[in-house]
Design a protein that fits this description.
The complex is a heterodimer of chains A (224) and B (243). By secondary structure, chain A is mainly α. Chain A is built from ten helices and no strands. Chain B is mainly α and 243 residues long. Classes of the chains: A mainly alpha (224), B mainly alpha (243). The interface between A and B is medium-sized, with 30 and 29 residues.
Amino acid sequence: MTGTVAALIRKDLQLERRAFESVPAMLMFSISIFVLFHFGLDRGALAGDLAAGVLWVTLLLAAVLGMNRLFVAERDQGGFDGFLMAPVDRTALFVAKAIVLFSFLVAVELVAVPAFVVLLLDPSPGQAMPELLAVLVLADAGIAVVGTLIGALGVQTRARDLIIPLIALPLLVPVVIAAAEATAPLLAAQGAEPFPARWLAVLALYDAVFGLLAYAVFDFLLEE
Amino acid sequence: MTFGRGLRALSIASAVLIPGAFALVFFYAPNDADQGFVQKIFYLHVPMAIVTLCGFVAGGVYGIKHLRSGDRAHDLRSYVAIHMSLILGVGVLATGSIWARASWGHWWVWDEPTLVSFLIVFLLYACYQPLRFSIEDPERQARYASVFAILAGAFVPLNFLAVRMAESLSHPRVLSTTGGAMPGDMRITFLVALVGMACLFVTLCKYELASKAASMQLRALKRRLAGDDGLVPLNRSAAPQQL
């Protein structure tokens, strides 16, 4: 299982390194959205809940781009058939793809969050960094789990680009609620305030519930 | 497949309970001391919302049964439960909106968590039919729809938890009034309305199941009559076409 997962991850990362299909697009998209928000809200700097909202909506929309592309190579170039013929546990594909999507999100955020701080955020979240990282990691895990599942569900449909965002966005509303509520006090104008830990608990609960569900149902998306 | 069993008894029960509940609402239950006559929409809105959410969860349960057994009848049940819940869901949003307008002065209130979480759940389930419609292979359509139904069914309680936590706790919890806070005659009226709505939901589901099963049987018979050259290709459809 571990070996299969590692091989699948290696394959996807190599593909991404050679073709640059997802991460640069997600990144460019996030930065464009920051610029759009700047003009749409007509604000030079954001703080508090407005900043948290802009950050999380942008990251979520960028993640949808990644979900859309996640399984395209598998479907178009026979990767699903090849994988189904191999004598390996099918859950390995889910685990590998979720880790890949998670690492794509981390790669995007490594640039997009500093860009957000530079472009839009007024107080730099200096000492609140560890808390912000915790929120980012937990939210990314939720987005990666749900995104992988919905990506696999939607990639076989006729209207893939339509079905995936339509299903994923309502499903991820709790992540946006919890992440934005947890981030808002960290980005407050008068410096970071202590943030309610219950939001981290909500994110962790969400990750756990959907992780288990995905583990249970993912096999049924592959059967042929 | 006999989906029509008990249909007559259920129809009669709904036909008695729904008018009975309305009679209780208008002639028995007292006007709310705070909101007056407008509060009576509560007896329509809340039972409908509860039944809708239970219908969504039931769709998920039938989805699990379908995936475990591979019996396509469960997929049909899951489809019908979600379909009926979507129709009732439109009613829930409309009545909720009217109630919000009458008691708070706005058609939509974002800090009423029950209303907001219901909207999110409704938006999610609104994608159920498009998802089914965009998958052509009937076997895969049934399988993917069940996966969706399970995910969405689990999402319902999680979403209510998250939205409820996010909102300020200044508004009264609608559902908490079903508990000890409600006076006896109001509670009886509410319970009758709830049972009536549940009966109506089950009856409508059974009617749709029976109708779908009948047209499937009819199609199979026609095909047998016409032989191989009379094969009419199935239209692409969101609803299950074969058992």
